[in-house]
Specification:
The chain has 122 residues and is mainly β. It is 0% helix and 47% strand.
Length: 122
């Protein structure tokens, strides 16, 4: 099971780092994706990273501001979020699966975490 952490309330322009860890086990062998669901909107793909961490992809809305990384030794995937905007406010989820060939697709991922709230507001 995947568990997200690191969410919270931050002012516009601020930063947060989300973590996605495997509870009591190693990370699944496939890609790891980050997704989010903003209030009143459907869940959307944010970013994904391949198993070896060599390639990653981002949604246009976050490219250049968010960075995904994977530390298999620590069984954790990170999402560093900089220059946060109010429109980044959402519940963020990580999930295992793939492939990671572009913006992650919900249907390609399984083993979802419970989600964590990120709120960007002054």
């Amino acid at each position: 099971q995947l568990v997200e952490s690191g969410g919270g309330l931050v002012q516009p322009g601020g930063s947060l780092r989300l973590s996605c860890a495997a509870s009591g086990s190693t990370l699944p062998r496939g890609a790891i994706g980050w997704f989010r669901r903003a209030p009143g909107k459907e869940r959307e793909g944010v970013s994904c990273v391949e198993r070896n961490g060599e390639r990653s992809h981002y949604a246009d809305s976050v490219r250049g501001r968010f960075t995904i990384s994977r530390d298999n030794a620590k069984n954790t995937v990170y999402l560093q979020m900089n220059s946060l905007k109010p429109e980044d406010t959402a519940v963020y989820y990580c999930a295992a699966g793939g492939p990671c060939l572009g913006t992650p697709l919900i249907g390609d991922f399984y083993s979802w975490g419970q989600g964590i709230q990120v709120s960007v507001s002054s």
